[in-house]
Fold each of these.
Amino acid sequence: MKKNNVLIFCFSLFFLAAQSVFSQKIFRVNILCPDDTISKNLIVEYDNGKTTKTTRQKFVNGHLTLTDTFYAFNAMITISRSDSNQRFSNSYFINELPATFAYKSIDSSRKKLVFENSNAIDLGDAGENELKKYTSKEELDVSEYFRKNGSKVAGNDSAAIAESNLKISAIINKRLEFVLLNNSSYFSFYYFRKNLIGNLILPPDSLLKLYNTTFPKAFRKSFEGNEIVKFLNGRLLSAVNHSISPDFSTVDINGKKVELHKMRGKFVLISFWATWCSPCVAELPAMREIRNTTSDKKLEIISISYDTDKELFLKGIKKYEMNWVNIFYDEDISKKFGVSSLPMLFLIDDKGRVIYSRKSDETSYTKLGVLRKIIDRANLQ
C-alpha cells in the first residue's frame, strides 16, 4: 500500500494546489461527439459539492458545452450511455481549467466510453482502481454467495439474509479501511462523502469520530467537510432521541416562507418522500388520517419531496390529497436531517426536540403504529 499511497497523495497535491477551501469556482467542459447515434444517448451528470445535477442540454453539431459553479475542491463529471441493457460510464475530476472530452469509441470489455481528454483526471486513476483491487476478495465473496444463495435471500430465508448482510458489511468495512489508509488522498475524501457517510451499516457517531481524527485539516475545514459534518449530525438525530432539531428556512409550493424555528410551541411532523417511492406512497393514507384527527394548531405536517420532475410532483400532491405543507426537493434540509433512504419521518415536539424518527424495525409503512401512539399520547386533537 505504501507505493499506492504515494501515487494517490501526489494526485491530491496536483488538484488541491492553490485552492481556497470556501471559494466558489466555475468549471467549463466541452464534449465533442460527432456521431449522432452516440451523442443523442449520452447522459451528462456532475457533482458540484452541494448536489448532483443532470444536464438537459443537447449536443449541437456534435458539440456540448457545460459550465457551472462548484463548491468542492474539484467537481466530478460522469458521462454515460445505456445500450442493449448495458451501461457504459466514465467519471472524472475536473477543476477551473477548461476540460475537453473528445469521444473515440466504446470499450465493451470494461464497459467504458473511450475519450481523449484534457484537464481531467479519471476516477480510476485517482484511486478507484486501487480501491477495487483492495476490496476484490470481499466483492468476489459476495458475488459467489448470491450466485449460490440468491434464491434463498429472495425467498426471505432468515439465515441466508443474515449471512449476506455479514458479507456485505465486510465489503463496506473494507472500503472504509482503504479510505482511512489513504486519508491524504482527495479521492478517499470524496469517496467518504459520496459513498460511506450515508451507508446505514456504518454508525454515524463512529464515522464522525473517524472523520475528525483521520482526514487532514485542509479537508475538514473545507466546504465539503462542512457538508459531511452536517449530514452525519443529521444521521445522529435518528440514533439519539430528544436531540434538538436542526433549523431550516425554505419556501413551499405556493411560495410561502417556511421557517421551522417559528413553529416552536407546536409539534411538527416532517416527511421525506417521492412520488416514485412505493413505500412512501403506501404510508400517505396513514398520514392523511393523522392530519384529519389532529389540530393544525397543535401539529404541523411538512412533506419534502425528492422528486426532480416538478410537474409529476404537483400531480402527486393532488392525487394523494396531501393537504398540508409541501416542499419541492431541498437537498440542504435532507442533509441536515441525514436522510439516506426513503421514506423518512421525524416528529419534533413543541420544544424543538426530535422525539421520533423512522426506526429500522418499523417496516409497516401503511400503519405507522409507533408514530400514532406517540401522537395519541401527546393529545394533539
Amino acid sequence: MATPMLELTTGAVAIMPRAGRLTLPGTLATGLEFLHILAAGVDPSLRNWADGKPNATKVGAPVAGAGFLTLRSGVDYLKTGLLDVAGDRTYLVVGRDVSGGAAGAARFAWIGSAVGQSGGANLYTLDGTSIRYNVPYSNAGGEVNSSAVLPIPKVFNCLIMTAAQVGLTSTAADNPTLYNMTTGVSAVGSLNDGYARVANGQPVIIGGFSGTAFGGVGDEALAMCWSRVLTDAERVAAYAWAKALVATKSIAV
C-alpha cells in the first residue's frame, strides 16, 4: 500500500512529493478536481494530487521561495488540466499579493479561467487595497457579473471561494462568496433566480488568466478546486488541513 502523502490523524504532517497518493480528511476528496502543493517547489507543484486528474504545466519561470512559488500573471504561472466547462465551483488558495498593483497590468490574477476579464470564476487584485472574486452569469439576455470584495492579503492568508452553477432564490448559499478563513471575514455577491454561470471552456490557471490583462506578482503555497460548493463544515475542515500543511513550511495562516 502506498504511503499517504499527509497524515493528519496522528498530528504528524509532512510534505512527501514522491508519495503514491494523498489522503484527505472526511469528504474533501469528493469532487476534487485539482490539488497543487506549490510549497513543494516548482516541478513538484505540477503534480495534481486529485485521483485520476491531469497534472498542471509550467508556463514561464515561476520562482521557488521558502514554501511558496512566486508567480507573475501573464508570464510565470501554472496552467492546470481543468477546463472550465460549467458546474458548481469551490477554490482554495493560500497566498499573498506582492506587487499590490492598483490598476491594469500591475494587478495579480490569483486563480481563474478568464480570458482577459471575461468568463469563468476568478479571483484577482482589484486595486491597491482590495481583491475581487468575480463570477459572470447569464439569463439568456446578456452577461452580468456577481462579485465579492475583501481587503487584499499582504501576508499569507487562506482564501476559499464558492459559486453555484445556477442561482436559486430559496437560499444565498449558492451566491458567489469569498471567504478569508485566516481573518474570519467574508463577502457575498448577488445572484438572481435561474441565472447560470458563464463557463468559457478555458483552463483554470494558478497565478494568472489567459491573455495579458494582468501582470502583477503574488506568492502562492497551495491551490485546490472542487466541482461542487463545499458545506460550512467542509470549509472549516479544508482550512484546517491547509493550515497544517503550510505550517510545515513555517507559513502561518
Amino acid sequence: MALPLGVVAVVLGIMGRHRVKHGDATNKGMATVGVALGGLALVLAGAVVAMGAAFLSSDSGRDYNNCLEKATGQAQRDQCAKQFERDITR
C-alpha cells in the first residue's frame, strides 16, 4: 500500500509546489513535506520488496515455500512454520 500512496503523495506535492510557484496557493511547506514523505514511502516500500525477494530466494525461503506447497492440511502447514522458525534462528 505504501508504493501507490507514495506515488500519490509525490505527485500531489509536486502539483502543490507548482501551484505555489504560480501564485495559486500558499502552502509551499505542506507541498514540500508531501514530496519528501512520499519519496520516503517509495524508498521504504522498495526496501521491503527487495528484502522479501531476497528472503524468498534464500534456501530457507525456498524450503518453506516447498514445504507449504506439499502440505495437505493445517497440521502440516504448522509443522512447516515450526521448521522454518528453527531454520532461521540457527
